[in-house]
Every structure is written in structure tokens, then in C-alpha cells.
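Readers of this paper often ask what the protein records in our data store actually look like. An entry from our holdings is shown next, in its original layout:
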Amino acid sequence: MTLERALAPLMTIGAFCNLAMFEYPVGQSRTYITCLYALAKCSLLTYFVYYSNCIDSFYEEKTVYLDELLSLLTIILIPISICRFKELKICLLELAIVDHTLETLGTPKEYRRLRNFIIRMIIGLIVYVCYLVTFSAFRYSFRYDLSWFDILDIFLLLYPHNAVTLSALISAAILGLVL
């Protein structure tokens, strides 16, 4: 098992959050599809979710919360993460070369353990996201009657927080390989 195959589940989830590029055969980046997906996703999130919430808070004469500004900043940071993906791939390639060198010197590779750890991290992230959405929906249900659309709105409003958490998990997995 190679290093890229061990990190594939994390990179796939990261691609859906626009933190990495789509790669259909492993190693072949699909830049065009990734950019179109990021543009469509950012446009839809901005227009239907973040813009409408800012307008609602403006009409209700509430202050704009820091979370709403962070949501817009996350949309801006998505193209930056796509541009940095090439540097990440080069770093992973160099790390794989170091691992192959260490294997020739007699150090065993532990990619199976790394892959299982990454799958556990993804399951933990899914549980964490479900907990956040459930907690927020439960908290708002005391004041308002919630529909499925409101729960979806809560999920989309928490997207920047979840994307930052996933980015931290990707960084932790790569730092775990280095250390």
C-alpha cells in the first residue's frame, strides 16, 4: 500500500469540501472539474445561504455576527487551498521517497495503520458534524418550529466550521506522517 492510497479517503472528503483537487485515477488531478465545482458551490452557498442570512440580519437590525463574516472568508479561502494543493502533492511525493528510503534501510511501513486511523478520523468528523447540527437544531427548536429546510440551513451555516475542522485533520494526518 502506498502513501497516496492511505491518504485517499481524507483527500476525497477534502475534495468535496474544496480543500483538495479531484483525482479520478489517483495521481491525475482534474483541475477543470474542481474549479467548476468550487465555483458552483461557492456561488450557491453565497447566494442562497450567506447572503440571505446577512440580509435578514440587516432587516431585523441585528449586528452581523462573526460567524457570518467567517462564512464569507471561507468562500474566499477555497481558491487559495486549490492553488496550494500542488505544493501538498509535492510534499507527499517527497515524503513517499523518504519512506521508501527508510524501507530499504529496514524500517517497516505502517500505511495500513495510517489508513485505519484516517478512517476513524473521518467517522469521528461525521459524528462531530451530526452532533453540532443536532445540538443547534435542538437549541433553536425551543424558540421556533423547525422544518427540514431549517435543519439544512443550520448544516449549511456550519459548513465553514466543518471545512476548517477537516483542514485541521488533513494537516494533522500529514504532520503525523512526518513526526
